[in-house]
Design a protein that fits this description.
HotDog_dom_sf, about 160 residues, about 40% strand, Thiol Ester Dehydrase, Chain A, alpha+beta, six-stranded antiparallel beta sheet, Thioestr_dom, 4 helices, thiolester hydrolase activity
């Protein structure tokens, strides 16, 4: 496909979403996970990821750190999709584990709930490959002192 066939580069809200997706991919922690973030619209995020036995606890199911990481990331990016100037920070996060997870493909879906100034609240659901919810979380996020434009992963997506 030539650059002309690919269409114009994203701009405005779409460019912000693509830059956040790039930022997610650039985070060193995400080298440990086979995952991909998609932001389809403001206040909504999706992380598709795979888990295997390397992420299990001693009883043979996925460790709770994976639940937390994916739920927190999905809620965080749903909230940060509404903020174009600052990186948000998680200030609190509550988890509900509803079922153990085995190996396979999972999806974390984040949704913004409230807040548009300093503090944002977002929730996320963790869905297994059968479409069943296996976990849920709600987080509180606040603006940091870090401009998004100062973060190399975000800047790379904006040229």
């Amino acid at each position: 496909m030539t650059p002309l066939e690919a269409g114009p580069p994203p701009s405005g809200e779409s460019a912000h979403f693509r830059a956040l997706e790039q930022l997610y991919g650039s985070a060193p922690i995400n080298r440990l996970f086979r995952s991909r973030l998609t932001i389809p619209s403001a206040g909504h995020s999706i992380i598709d990821f795979d888990v295997d036995e390397s992420q299990f606890h001693a009883a043979g199911a996925v460790h709770g750190t994976v639940y937390f990481k994916m739920l927190d990331d999905a809620a965080f990016y749903a909230a940060n999709s509404l903020v174009t100037d600052r990186f948000l920070l998680t200030t609190a996060f509550n988890l509900l584990f509803t079922r153990p997870i085995g190996p396979g493909r999972l999806r974390a879906e984040g949704r913004w709930i409230s807040g548009k100034r300093r503090v944002y609240v977002a929730e996320a659901s963790l869905i297994d490959q059968d479409g069943e919810e296996v976990g849920r979380g709600t987080g509180t996020f606040m603006r940091s002192q870090f401009p998004l434009s100062s973060l190399p992963g975000y800047r790379a997506a904006n040229g």
